[in-house]
Amino acid sequence: MPEDEIERAAAQDEDNPTTDEGHWAHAAVGLPAHDEAPKKATIQASFDRDVVEFFKRGGRGYQARMNAVLRRYMEAEKERTP
Question: What pTM did the predictor assign?
Answer without folding.
Answer: 0.54
